[in-house]
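The freezer alarm interrupted the setup, so I double-checked each line after restarting. Inputs confirmed:
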Amino acid sequence: MTATLPTAVDIAARAVDVWKVYGSGEAQVIALHGVSVELQRGQFTAIMGPSGSGKSTLMHCLAGLDTVTRGEVYVGDARVTGLSDRALTDLRRDKVGFIFQQFNLLPTLTAEENILLPLAIAGRKPDRDWFDTVIDTVGLRDRLKHRPTQLSGGQQQRVACARALVARPEVIFADEPTGNLDSRSGAEVLSFLRNSVRDFGQTIVMVTHDPNAASYADRVIFLADGRVVDELRDPSAEAVLDRLKRLDVTAAQLADGAVDGAV
Amino acid sequence: MLRATLKSLLSRKLRLLLSGLAVVLAVMFVSGAFVLSDTLGRTFDSLFTNAYDNTDIQVQAKPKVDVDGDGQGAVPANIESTVVGKVAAVPGVAKATGLVLAEGARVVGHNGKVVGGASPSPRFGVNWAGEDELMSLREGRGPRTSGEVAINAGLAKTGDLTVGEQVGVLTLEAKKTFTVVGIFGYTGGRDSVGGEQTVAFTEPVAQQLMLGATGVYNVIDVKVTDERDLTKVRDALRTQLGAAYQVDTGEDLAKKQADNLKQVLSFITYILLGFAGVALLVGVFLILNTFSIIVAQRTRELALLRAMGASRGQMIGSVMVEATVIGVVSWLVGLALGVGIGWLGGFLVAKLSGDLEVASLGVPPAAWIVSFVVGVGVTILAALLPAFQASRVPPVAAMRQANTADRPLTRLTVAGAVLLLAGSGSLVYGLSGKAGGNTIWWVVGGVFVDFIAVALLTPLLGQPVVSLLGRLFSWSVPGKLGRLNSGRNPRRTAITAAAMMISIALVTGISTIFSSVDESIGKVLDKQIQADLIIAGQQTSAIPPSIDPAALRQVRAMPAVDAVAAEAYDAVLVDGKQRFVGAFDDQAAASRVLRLKATNGRVDRLGAGELLIDESTAKDRKWKAGDTVAAQLSRGEPRQFRITGVFANSGGGGGMIMSWQDATTGFRTATATQAFVKLRPGADATSAKRDIDMVLKDSPEVNVSTRSEWIGNQLKIFTFALFMVQVLLFVAMLIAILGIINTLVLSVLERTRELGMLRAIGLRRGRTMWMITVESVVISLFGALLGITVGAGLGAAVVRALKDKGITELSLPWGLMATYVIGGAVVGVVAAIIPAIRAARLNVLNAIAYE
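Predicted 3D structure, all chains:
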């Protein structure tokens, strides 16, 4: 049904003039300043920015984990803004996949059970062929019966990736997926993510502050002080690093200029 | 260090509140028991001091049939009127008055029932001796003819009786009708003394009806010339009258009576102390659990403190300070509640026993001390183990992921097995009867040690059982996750379930014993009682209920009735041993209705001076037909009786039967107390029962019941006891619930990130709650199942040991056990409410970021 709407064909998730404000009065913090982004289907997008730039907040709002103060968020053709907790839960279950920095696997379940957990929660039958494809892609065939504590960090994160992929969600959100991994395991996970975009057309949005990780993406969106300030397509690590450095300068200027209300 | 401890204490208010609650409950029951017994004690002291205020000295004859030798419970013998003169002649005696003052004058009210129903307050029948310092007429006059009585205002009010009215009074004899001619009250405007009812007859009537003979008294009231000589005169009277008489000052009597009543009411104290014991036993597990949890939760914090140089002693100290604070706070709260319970109990007792004036509330030193030891001591003791755990946290744990692997259960299991053997050994030894007077301690000790042993073995048992139980819920994803969670920390699951296990094991054990005793007695009664209908009643005063002889004659005349055996009984000293002896007004009918079977001699007829005994008495005393034995009856001198027959063990007569002639002269009252009715073949029991009911309207204390109804009535006491046990269970379960809540709240806290992830990938709130509920139910079901198993096992062991005491049937209370298991599941659901709501309300974002 998604194919009938022209916008939905290209756009897996989008934010329209999203504001996120914490607190009020003196203590008011504006995390997102009217952010509008469109995340294209079948693309690997990285969101970057210095800490406090609002990149995680943006991802949480896009994923239906957090509510927005103003503006609208869509996942596929579904409007996320204003949904009840239950509808949000079901949206996450059916249309969104997650990869966390802390792996977040259930220690009581085996790797296989962890991978199939979202499907089990939704009461859906796993597609065996697809499951096999995913397992072979992440290379966990001989680890399926192991529990998370018996797996290395890289293996655990690959289980988490498989868990996100196996339900074929509209979009997968990855929050610093390599933050807790050594560089070799990190590279493995990242190439696996890129491959799943290239080979299976999966949409992935990744928040990271690692330019090297961002270089795996098709597109990098730069955030600073709650605004989208820049964007880069088919980036290299050097280019990303270069932009980031410039961004720091811009951010400092912005912070200075914020007093006069200059934008 | 202390500041850090107190700070962390305050930050976990909820958990501390929960663990403190068990201590609060225990302290409440303990101090309540002390306060209540103290309040009641002082109430009775003042009541009887008041009642004997105007009494200098009283003389009573010692009971003829009295085993204990202290005159308690036995009926004093009559005093010949000549003794009054003898007493008056003793120097220092100003005046000696013979009185009739006996319990057992039951007034029949307007509704045809005894006024005051089953109230335990005394119902006195006295001779009218005019007004005195204590008592004065409020209305009318004293009785002058044999058909007149005066009654106290309390009785008049309760029974709504007025001067000029006709009332029926039951005494040693069947119902007689009198005219109320006066109503009297007591000093201070009181209607009655401690709720008592008094009927004053003319002297000859009082003597005949209350003492069973004219010209006799049962009390001589003595006034002394000089109050200061009170004890001197008392001692003089004692020497003058000899050992057959009891001489007491008013003060002695007040104390004696008050002590008597206190003893009767001490069961309330025991019930409260029993509750306290259970609350404590379960509470220890709760506190242990709470502190283990706190220590586990603070592992990193403790390790950090260690890394910064805090010593092991300081670690232990910090946990102990926490325990002390909780103990003291809970103790104070519990004490306050206990005082409330004591007050409430005193108030209820006073209300139930008429207009008793309750003494002012007091907290005896024992209440302070014992409750302090119980509250603070137990808390500290239970916290010791976790404190040592805390001190063993290695400093390096501060740097590691807090997820320390569970230590193996080998040591626990070995300790549990050793204790189980020791406890069972003690139990077996105690039950074998070789321990003599210490039997109870061996048994109780054994049960206690076994409880601890099972508690230690619980983690081992928990793994397979929990996983098996959990499969019940594995049909849904949250159910499966819940099941897996409950198996994650075997120690914690075990200690949580242990609280549940102990409470349910206790009640299952007691219920098993009760239901076995119930079943055994029921079976015996069923075999013994061959009558179709039984006429019997509840004893409400010192005189047993009576069946009007006229009514019995009418019953015998009924066409449906084949035979009636009416029985009177009394305590008799047979060969120096007190026992209850029955007598039937028609021995031939009795042997037929009750199907007495002679094993020696004849049992279908019985003359004066003859005695029948049952087989077990014959065996015990090595008596046989033809032997003679000495017996002292309530009235008359000791006499020789010849055994003329031995009957096979069966009901009626309590194992010994005397002739009706001897009962008439020797029993306190020879009015039939119960009657067994055999119907003609084919007669309709229901209509016969209705007919007999009509005839019995002048015998308000008795009614007719069918055989099965009667057996049911005999077993009522067990129903009551079982009810009390259920209340006990309720208290214990309450504490067990707290334990489960505690554990679950911690689990939710520990798994915050997991819960966040589950919610993030699409687990709905309702299903999150279901997951927590399953975990909770699995734990509590495990505890309940273990509890009924252990309880039934221990109960069965005790029942087996009582086999030669006549408890031949082992009856497991299946219905109750099933209820307990269901109750266990309900407890699990209830306990899960708060933690489940907490889990469902978790902010997903914070939860994912949670460290």
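Quick read of the result. Confidence is low (pLDDT under 50) at residues 1-8, 258-263 of chain A.
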